[in-house]
Amino acid sequence: MREWTPEQIAAEAGARLVQPPPRGAAGPARAVVDSRQAGSGDLFVGLRGQHADGGEFAPAALAAGAWGVLIGDWLKAPDGDGAVLAAPDPLAALQRLARAWRRELGARTVGVTGSTGKTSTKDILAALLAPHVATVASPANLNTEIGLPLAILGAPPGTEALVLEMAMRGRDQIAELTAIAEPDAGVIVNVGPVHLQLMGSLEAIAAAKAELIRDMPPGGTAVIPAGERLLEAHLRDDLDIVTFGAGGDVRLVEVRDGGRVAIDARGERIELELSYTQAHNRLNTLAAVAAALAIGVRPAGRVEVPFSAMRGERIDLPNGVAVVDDCYNANPMSMRAALDELAVTGTGRRVAVLGDMLELGERELDFHREVGAHAAQRGVDLLVTVGPLAAAMLDAYDGEGHAVADAGEAAALLPELVEPGDTVLVKASRGVGLEVVAAALGEAAG
């Protein structure tokens, strides 16, 4: 937005320009919603929350050197140098501004959603695209009705590809994000029992994810898992439907040492050298390859992926213990995938520290028992459950097991149980806070 005038920014946002910035000031380079992050060249957007109105922090943002502020039109214009824009709904204004900037960029845009693995797929796709086109991907967890606009507005002029993660907590949320992003390609990584407590059924979850398919512009590409019947009713004739995985349009045909793989993409052979070997991430790679091809990029060669933190990150400690830090989130699908990976790559004893999986609805205990049974089938030597729901995993697990109430107890217990040479998987829903376990193991190792 550097080249946009204050009047243009206000018009695109549907806001009123109350006060212009100092004469000659270039437009903002990004938008922020936290006044503590506001600095030179930023547009601070004050959003109204349940307990406070972010617009009240506009004076602090201007004092920090922000280009300007966008606040609710019910607030008094703050004192200070910088532009002041007022809108009846600052969030809607932020979203309108992001859509306008996405159009101005003209970047080829991919929206990525799914019950699990969407962040890793986003990371992989960005790595596939980056050697070929100027690429910007959603940073961290900017994947909501607030975060996605911030990700778009942070893309600099000259961006040729946007990879945007889309989170879903209920109906109409993917639709809202799709309306902002207007993606050329949409990826649904999978459909699984996540947010069941809110959505009620897998069919409802699939329908919510499929809002991406429903609302994409005609002529785009929808990338979906091969054989996913829950999505069949939502497909459109005016989209190119590309399936990935076993039996799909984009499938893995060869796996060699060193992360080298060969992929068949509708008859075209693509060879890659991946910086990772996890089976679930190879599947995510197929989805990413399909999306890259959909926007005109043919991936090739070495693919180095800096995966987001706490998503299967392996940490080799000085005492010979390996910690697989996968505690950012969890659901039945990702738990099974993580246990499968532990079985294949774990050295020494295989130790699993598994916490509650949240928002699973009426069958929550059954889902936890199924994970316990899977841990037994995959040869886990020691299972430590964290939380009241995860304790049910021990009902179906016949090895050495311990149940603790919370992450703090687990952090105190694990250093006493773990031995040199063990591989320790740490995984739970975000609300359990199991990162303290990984930290405790690191501290114990010196």
Number of strands: 21
**Overall mean confidence score, pLDDT:** 94
- SS field, number of helical segments: 14
Helix fraction, binned, reads: 25-40%
Kindly report how far apart the N and C termini lie: 48 Å
Identify the overall geometry: globular
How much beta, percentage-wise?
15-25%
Oligomer: single chain
Quick one: CATH class of the largest domain?
Answer: Alpha Beta
CATH topology of the largest domain: UDP-N-acetylmuramoyl-L-alanine:D-glutamate ligase
CATH architecture of the largest domain: 3-Layer(aba) Sandwich
Whole-number total of structural domains: 3
The biggest beta sheet is recorded as: 6 strands, parallel
Spatial sequence of strands, sheet with the most strands: 7-8-6-9-10-11
For CATH, the homologous superfamily of the largest domain is named as Mur-like, catalytic domain
User: What structural class do you assign from the helix and strand content?
Assistant: alpha/beta
- Low-confidence segments, given as residue ranges, are none
Gyration radius, to the nearest Å?
A: 23 Å
Features:
UDP-N-acetylmuramoyl-L-alanine:D-glutamate ligase; 3 domains; 6-stranded mixed sheet; alpha/beta; 446 residues; globular; Protein-Tyrosine Phosphatase, Chain A; Udp-n-acetylmuramoylalanyl-d-glutamate--2,6- Diaminopimelate Ligase, Chain: A, domain 1; single chain; 14 helices; 6-stranded parallel sheet
Write structural notes for this entry.
- The protein is α/β, with parallel strands linked by helices.
- It folds into three domains: 84 residues, Udp-n-acetylmuramoylalanyl-d-glutamate--2,6- Diaminopimelate Ligase, Chain: A, domain 1 (3-Layer(aba) Sandwich); 198 residues, UDP-N-acetylmuramoyl-L-alanine:D-glutamate ligase, CATH 3.40.1190.10; 132 residues, Mur ligase, C-terminal domain (Protein-Tyrosine Phosphatase, Chain A), CATH 3.90.190.
- It is built from 14 helices and 21 strands.
- The strands form four sheets. The chain has a six-stranded parallel sheet with strand order 7-8-6-9-10-11, sandwiched between helices. A six-stranded mixed sheet has the order 16-17-21-18-19-20, sandwiched between helices.
- Helix 4 crosses helix 10.
- It is globular and about 70 Å long.
- The mean pLDDT is 94.
